[in-house]
Write a structure and sequence with these properties.
- The complex is a heterodimer of chains A (258) and B (143).
- With 258 residues, chain A is mainly alpha-helical.
- Chain A is 58% helix and 0% strand.
- In chain A, helix 1 packs across helix 2, helix 5 crosses helix 9 and helix 7 runs parallel beside helix 9.
- Chain B is globular and about 50 Å long.
- Chain B starts with a helix and ends with a helix.
- In chain B, helix 6 packs across helix 7.
- By secondary structure, chain B is mainly α.
- Chain B is built from seven helices and no strands.
- The chains are: A mainly alpha (258), B mainly alpha (143).
- At the A-B interface, helix 1, helix 2, helix 3, helix 4 and helix 5 of A face helix 2, helix 3, helix 5 and helix 7 of B.
Chain lengths: 258, 143
């Protein structure tokens, strides 16, 4: 059989949805049909691979040591056995992030799924969205530990002081949480007043991120209820509140039509 | 992602640490122009790709002969015969350039223009690497 489909044509057909017009050549060419079927199976299998997997061991001690070595987090305040288990750091945090909160347009990864894997992709997006809350927690921590170059105004003084003292217990953080909530309420009001002047997709991104952060805050508070003396959880809660304030502050200060 | 892009579990651990360090360092530059998750994932990809390239260059500089894997095989010869290959192992055995494109496109869901930007290659190269990777995967898995 002459004039077989080119490699590019085969791959394009393999990625297209099953309802697309098939190439007429396929009706008469067993070889190209076989190639196409094989490609479709492979693409389906690759698209179905899990994007999140647990690491074989806890990587946090090394990450923490490097963060301290690089001066990203303050030295001292080492973990003690009474602090409970260290947060686990692994691939899920890296691979969960992409599809999390922006399934429409700004996410490179959460775009419309290819081929026959829409349901699977959608399921993974939902899973990743949940995991993204954890990403926020870890990332948010940096805000409160003196990252270089940050000129943004920080959280209310009481909150900032609390966050800089890793030995603080949840009970001591309690009063500061009210400060956070008050500041968040003010900024949310400013953002709401600003929303009408912003592009809808910008508003959507901000609101999606706020939902992720609020989910993270709820998760940490639930964990703290079970372990109120945990320094790490207290620290994460303050950090996550700070991220929420920062996001709201940015949203309230965005120029028009952004 | 780190494991798949590097083809090595031990290297993936180092890369994961690199990513976390970079994320904490770069967080002040996040401007909220995209979802935080999108920003994080792109940063992770860049860190992993940069580190893989840097380590290859260092290997080549240390030992230009043995350390340099040389030109990537043009065909499935790079995949060992006679082994029970599953998807993950087949991915790990792909040449680096083909593996990067295949993982980013078929597993992580990036488009060719995004991959071209991330890897510093042309869109045409991204496509040809993908076709090559899929061809090698199929041949390996069909054995």
């Amino acid at each position: 059989m002459n004039d077989h489909l080119t490699e590019e044509e085969l791959h394009a057909l393999a990625e297209s949805s099953s309802g697309d017009e098939p190439a007429p050549h396929l009706a008469t060419c067993e070889r190209c049909r076989r190639e196409l079927d094989g490609l479709r199976v492979l693409i389906a299998e690759l698209g179905g691979l899990p994007r999140c997997e647990d690491p074989p061991r806890d990587l946090w001690p090394e990450v923490e040591a490097r963060l301290r070595g690089a001066g990203v987090v303050p030295r001292g305040g080492r973990r003690t056995p009474s602090d409970g288990p260290a947060p686990t750091v692994g691939w899920p945090l890296l691979s969960a992030a992409p599809a999390a909160v922006d399934p429409g347009q700004t996410s490179a990864l959460a775009r419309a799924p290819r081929g026959t894997h829409r349901a699977e992709r959608a399921r993974r997006v939902a899973t990743a969205a949940a995991a993204a809350g954890v990403v926020v927690l870890l990332v948010a921590g940096a805000r409160l530990v003196g990252l270089p170059g940050s000129t943004e105004p920080t959280a209310p003084r009481a909150v900032a002081r609390s966050a800089q003292r890793p030995t603080i217990a949840f009970a001591a953080f309690g009063p500061s949480e009210a400060d956070f909530e008050a500041a968040a309420g003010d900024l949310l009001g400013a953002f709401e007043a600003r929303k009408a002047t912003l592009r809808p997709e910008t508003v959507r991104v901000i609101e999606e991120n706020l939902r992720v952060i609020d989910g993270a805050i709820a998760n940490i508070r639930a964990a703290l209820a079970a372990d109120p003396a945990s320094r790490d959880l207290t620290f994460l809660l303050a950090s996550t509140y700070e991220m929420k304030l920062d996001l709201l502050r940015r949203g309230a200060q965005l120029p028009r039509a952004l | 992602m780190a494991r798949r892009l590097s083809g090595s579990a031990s290297l993936a651990e180092e890369l994961t640490q690199d990513v976390f360090l970079r994320v904490f360092q770069r967080l002040p530059t996040f401007r909220g122009e995209s979802a935080l998750s999108t920003w994080l994932h792109r940063l992770a990809v860049r860190v992993i790709i940069d580190e893989l390239r840097r380590s290859r260059l260092e290997r080549a500089a240390r030992d230009p002969g043995a350390g340099d894997p040389g030109p990537e095989p043009a065909g499935p010869a790079g995949i060992e015969r006679g082994e029970a290959l599953d998807l993950e192992r087949s991915i790990a055995r792909l040449p680096q350039g083909a593996r990067e494109v295949l993982v980013l496109y078929d597993v992580e869901g990036y488009q060719h223009d995004e991959i071209a930007e991330l890897l510093g290659i042309s869109i045409g190269t991204s496509k040809s690497q993908l076709f090559r990777a899929r061809r090698m995967m199929r041949e390996a898995l069909c054995r």
